[in-house]
What we know:
Distance between the termini: 18 Å
Low-confidence stretches: 12-20
Order of helices and strands: EEHH
Amino acid sequence: MFVKSVVVVAAALLSLPAVAEPMVARQVNFGDLNLESDAGRATLQKRLNRAVASICAVNPVDDSAAVREAQDRCISETSAGLQSQVDAAVRASRAKTARLASN
């Protein structure tokens, strides 16, 4: 069975450095997308970007250079960690299409 979702996981940003950072996850579904098309991959990327932004969001009241730096780090690290899942989903989609075409 082919999984049609990507799980976005990141350590949530906390303004208190002494507190352990909890893990936060969002599931991003893509079963309705054709990952072999540019449009499908672009739509998946938009969904992932929204999920990452949601996970790495900070309270505007806590706005400071340190908080913005931590937020930027959260976004870049979380986004980088997603690429292998996206690549695997695209490969699986192409393999499925190839199997169907050969039947």
